Amino acid sequence: EAFHAMSLRHTCVLFILEQFDKICTRPGFLSANPACHP
After folding, report:
1. Which residues contact 23 (CB under 8 A, 6 or more apart)?
2. What is the top-level taxon of the source organism (predicted)?
């Protein structure tokens, strides 16, 4: 149960990061959002 919850959370985090990556590659958004800069 705990392992399943952790893998689910990991998948969720990866999904969010992928979405965030797509948002950050949009022109104009990169310069507007300091969080996009590593």
Report:
1. 29, 33, 36
2. Eukaryota
What is the rounded distance in angstroms from the CA atom of residue 24 to the CA atom of residue 21? 5
User: What is the residue extent of each domain of the chain?
Assistant: 2-33
Which residue has 């952790």 as its token pair? 6
The one-letter amino acid at 19: Q
The CA distance from 19 to 2, in Å, is 26
**CA-wise closest residue to 27 among 36, 19, 18:** 36
